[in-house]
Amino acid sequence: MTTRFDRRSVLKLGGGLLAASALTPITGAFAQSKSINYWHTFTSQSEAAGLESVMALFKAAHPDIAVTPENIPNPEFMAKITAAVVANTRPSVTMVSSERFQDLLAMGALTDITDRVANWERRSDFSDQRFDSITADGKVYGVPGFAFVDWIYYRKDWFEEAGIAVPTTLAELYDAAVKLTDPSANRYGFALRGGPGGQNFIINMMEAFGAKLIQADGSISLDREKAIAGLTFYSDLAKNAAPSSAPNDGFRQIIEGFQTGQTAMVYHHTGSYQDIASKLEPGVQFGTMAVPTGPVNRVARLAYAYNTITKAEDADAAWEWIKFWGEPDAAVAFLEKTGYFPASTTAAADQRIAGNPMYAAASETLGFGIPQPSFPGAAGWAEGTVLPAFQRILIGQATPEQAADEIIAGLAEATQ
């Protein structure tokens, strides 16, 4: 089950919140706290270990600032941050994914840090593109913490045994997945995330078949026939090469399926690297590949997670925390525990990353990857319309044509 959170509800709340926030100027006049709390969506053991590493480095550099981390599960995040803004109990710092930025901005949840970023000594370590998804009307509202770089893990030993080359197109990926599928041995070619969190991969597939979501003029729409083509391909892949549990499989299921030898490929991002490597030997049992090209587009996301200041009273201490994620040692330490790629070009050039062939696919993707689509209502539409519509295809309750019509109608409603 997913939580519906669309543009209309955001703006309904946001109007009152913005009016209220106008009564309290965002200035340095507050007594600054040396104790801050940090809302994040980290859930796995590797993410927890990565956060602990960053916090230990931060404590050594800033012993006068105490950081209390608080985990907010992804499906609950929008409801909780909205309630916190309404009740004026917002956290000091919040981790914000790029696709949620516009919704949080609309409700007045974020603090303008344009001047702080412009004067930051590490600003030149980040290309301007890194800030695009956290900037509106020339104002910057966050600092890139790390990047989710889309790629695909594959069982290198299985591919070599079957004499299958690493796919370079989605058609080749489909063929490889079908060849490596043997239901009698509980072995499948592809771990498809049809459950919670799977919505972004569905959107990627539609765009790979030409159904571009955000047009050149900034308008938002989907080409019906191309969307149907993408949905047909992805649902056929699920039916012919994925476990029967695919309609409900979330992060844990697809990762465990790959780790335990149930599946030959899993489409995820660099953030699951350490989880995979904890069970399988890198370069021997598994490899990494850049996302293959589709019939029209090659779609892989560079989805940045940003740290934002959400409580003005704690702005000075909060700024020290969010900018610390840009320090190369902190970025590399986080990657070593999680696999999450640094947003800093200086950190990415570190030999601990650049010298590791397992990260070559991620480095390649930096050259063609694109940001997650971001517009008010995007997260609600993806979670509340795209995912359930696709799930209905997988369980035989809808055709790709019917799902495409539902997705397009939901998009029109979300962007009204």
Main attributes?
single chain; 416 residues; alpha+beta; D-Maltodextrin-Binding Protein, domain 2; 7-stranded mixed beta sheet; two-stranded antiparallel ribbon; 19 helices; 9 strands; 45% helix; 12% strand; globular; disordered N terminus
Describe the protein in words.
With 416 residues, the chain is of the alpha+beta class. It folds into two domains: 7-147 and 303-365, D-Maltodextrin-Binding Protein, domain 2; 149-301 and 375-414, Periplasmic binding protein-like II (D-Maltodextrin-Binding Protein, domain 2), CATH 3.40.190. It is built from 19 helices and nine strands. Helix 2 (45-61) runs antiparallel to helix 14 and helix 10 (224-241) crosses helix 19 (400-414). The model is unreliable at 1-31 (pLDDT under 50).
State the CATH architecture of the largest domain. 3-Layer(aba) Sandwich
Query: What global shape is seen?
Result: globular
Q: Could you please say which CATH topology of the largest domain applies here? A: D-Maltodextrin-Binding Protein, domain 2
State the share of residues found in helices, binned by percent.
40-55%
Largest sheet: 7 strands, mixed
**Based on helices, strands and strand pairing, what is the structural class?**
alpha+beta
Order of SSEs: HEHEHEHHHEEEHHHHHEHEEHHHHHHH
**Unreliable spans:** 1-31
What Rg do the Cα atoms give?
A: 21 Å
CATH superfamily of the largest domain: Periplasmic binding protein-like II
What's the mean pLDDT score? 90
Number of strands: 9
Q: What is the CATH class designation of the largest domain? A: Alpha Beta
Span from first to last CA?
Answer: 25 Å
Number of helices: 19
In percent terms, what proportion of residues is strand?
5-15%
How many domains is the backbone divided into? 2
